[in-house]
Amino acid sequence: MEFIKSGTSIDFIGKRKIALACSLALIIISVASIVWHKGLNYGIDFAGGTLVQVKFQKEPSADAIRSTFKSIGLENSIIQSFGENEVVIRTAESSSDPKGLSGKIEDALTAVYGKESFEIRRVEVVGPKVGSDLTRKAILAIVFSWIGMLIYIAWRFEFRYAVGGILALIHDIIITVGIFSLFNKEFDLTIVAALLTIIGYSINDTIVVFDRIRENVRKNIKQSLADTINASINQTLSRTILTSFTVFLVVAVLFFFGGAVIHDFAFALLVGVVVGTYSSVFVASPIVLAFEKIKPSGIKRNK
């Protein structure tokens, strides 16, 4: 299936300055949001603490639950809706005996709501040392993925392509994380998994464009690199739109109908698909052109 007619010639490279301004604005907003919120809204995977998921028979009130917890010293807990008539209670307190803490919560809720009106479905406890270790490993996982791809692309193509691909990935991750910060969404290991998925998707999309650029560079030695890149992006545009659109549809279905458990994961993928597709066209390829001007490949071309 071909959405874009053959012979289409959209001047993507000519719009690279506008794209650069948009990317810089999004990155600045993302970083500013993280600074403004004094970091990300870390889940217990990274921050440590205790998470308790409770299912009620009727829709509960967060303020009423918080008042109930005053008797056990947990009135500062974060209480969030989770699905239908369910809440997730997050507290910074961690205990080596999760049953003891959940027992206190159960007793406090029983005294107000009655024993048959709710059910404790999940209790998770992460100590501060474990949370710090998971944070370090999550960062290393993302950095090592970048390094591995940098080496592969430099070997498979050229170093300038590797630089373009990795900077596009860093661009994608900063903006995705920034949007999570803007909406103050919880950042946990599930989101790290989503970020790694975005990295894989985005680099795959970028490499398809790079492969066509390399092929056209060999065919049209005398053509300017800017024209070659433009032609290559246009030639792969139908494939890019079709792939991105189908992935977006699947992730959108997960986002709206997948339930609360994977809601944030799907949201991260939705953002990542859009940003990753944009960066493959407007970030990675222009960087290749800019790198050529800084360090020419030695091939004589028309200007």
Q: Looking at this structure, what is the CATH superfamily of the largest domain?
A: Multidrug efflux transporter AcrB transmembrane domain
Judged by helices, strands and strand pairing, the structural class is: alpha+beta
Order of helices and strands: HEHEHEEHEHHEHHH
- For the record, give the distance between the C-alpha atoms at the N and C termini, rounded to a whole number: 35 Å
CATH C-level class of the largest domain is Mainly Alpha
The CATH topology of the largest domain turns out to be: Multidrug efflux transporter AcrB transmembrane fold
Compute the number of structural domains.
Answer: 2
Principal-axes shape call = elongated
Strand content: 5-15%
**Unreliable stretches covering 5 or more consecutive residues:** none
Largest sheet: 4 strands, antiparallel
Question: Compute the gyration radius: what is it?
Answer: 24 Å
Calculate the mean pLDDT score and round it: 85
This entry's quaternary arrangement is single chain
Strand tally, please?
A: 6
Q: Give the neighbour order of strands across the main sheet.
A: 3-4-2-5
Tell me the number of helical segments per DSSP (H or I, 4 or more residues long).
9
The CATH architecture assignment of the largest domain turns out to be: Up-down Bundle
Helix content: 55-70%
